[in-house]
Amino acid sequence: MTKSVLVTGGAGYIGSHTCHQLVEAGENVVVVDNFYSGHRWAVPEEALLVEGDAGDITLTSQLMQAHNIDTVIHFAGHIVVPESVTDPLKYYRNNTQNSRNLLEACVLSGVNQFVFSSTAAVYGIPEEQPATENTETSPINAYGRSKLMTEWMMNDLADRPDIAQAFRFIALRYFNVAGARPDLKVGQATPEATHLIKVACQAALGIRDAVHIFGTDYPTADGTGIRDYIHIEDLASAHLCALDHLRAGGESKTMNCGYGQGYSVREVMEMVKKVSGVDFTVIESPRRAGDPPELIAGNDLIQQTLDWDIRYQDLEVICRTAYEWESKWAKMQEKG
């Protein structure tokens, strides 16, 4: 029986892009999603879509056994940092407890390969830049902690002694994800998304009145925060590379997934204005608590470990595909 890949949260932003690439690569894909923030239309028709919760041990175990799953790619989780501060238990339930249950289902079903959607939020406010995998993990909110706890669980599983077939994993710590497929099949359609580039595109389309820059007095070239933005298609392809790595017998690794270069908030605003042709309103506001001046991915490890072909690194490409998708998405919502 042909091997299959189980993708949790495959109807979401990053999950759906990855599913399309998996299908295009000839993989048999099974998707589990409860549609908390995902969309049925975002899942490729070739994938088997099952409505359910990634933390349902009975369901995921049955799927793993029925479809000869050899690898799980785990995206399902909540990602809104401010919400994790006001409702931390929601994040520990969905991000940590459900991940624990999914890992148990893997153990019960003999699935020993796991790719995990982690985050740079595990670093908190790092003292060094760029942040590398050796940078101290010191998350400052429940979102970052909930992801770090899952990393710990995977490490503990991988470190079990005297196991005939060792559990192996790749944890990818994402930085700032943006953009859309160039063919606009899918894009960022998460309700109430707070990502800067999406917000700026909405302002350019008149969906928002303005964009706020939170902090203009950082010790950076133009006074605004600097972040490492990664195009969604490059991020998705990293998961396929992680799958190949595990199937080839590669070791467990936790790796940053970013370009190793950053752009300031002002640079992003100007680029979105350029690609949209709209001079939308930008409001300068005070700093937000917990925002580091700079957060850049040290990406040497992923470059050395995976055969990862970066294709969409240019900020203009990231912003242009984001804007074109946002235009399409706005029209889709108007039509209902």
Structural overview:
This protein has 336 residues and is of the alpha/beta class. It has 2 domains: 4-178 and 230-257, Rossmann fold (3-Layer(aba) Sandwich), CATH 3.40.50; 196-228 and 260-296 and 312-335, UDP-galactose 4-epimerase, domain 1 (Alpha-Beta Complex), CATH 3.90.25. It has helices at residues 13-24, 57-66, 81-86, 88-109, 142-158, 196-204, 232-247, 265-276, 300-305, 315-335; strands spanning 4-8, 28-33, 48-51, 69-74, 113-119, 168-174, 176-178, 211-214, 226-227, 229-231, 253-257, 263-264, 282-285, 294-295. A 7-stranded parallel sheet has the order 3-2-1-4-5-6-11, sandwiched between helices. Strands 12-9-14 form a 3-stranded mixed sheet. Helix 2 runs parallel beside helix 4 (88-109) and helix 8 crosses helix 10. The radius of gyration is 19 Å and the shape is globular. The mean pLDDT is 95.
Across the major sheet, the strand order is: 3-2-1-4-5-6-11
| Secondary-structure element string | EHEEHEHHEHEEHEEEHEEHEEHH
Q: What is the gyration radius calculated from CA atoms?
A: 19 Å
Q: What is the percentage of strand-forming residues? A: 15-25%
Quantity of strands, as a count: 14
Helices, strands, pairings?
Elements: E1 4-8, H1 13-24, E2 28-33, E3 48-51, H2 57-66, E4 69-74, H3 81-86, H4 88-109, E5 113-119, H5 142-158, E6 168-174, E7 176-178, H6 196-204, E8 211-214, E9 226-227, E10 229-231, H7 232-247, E11 253-257, E12 263-264, H8 265-276, E13 282-285, E14 294-295, H9 300-305, H10 315-335
Parallel strand pairs: 1-2, 1-4, 2-3, 4-5, 5-6, 6-11, 7-10, 8-13, 9-14
Antiparallel strand pairs: 9-12
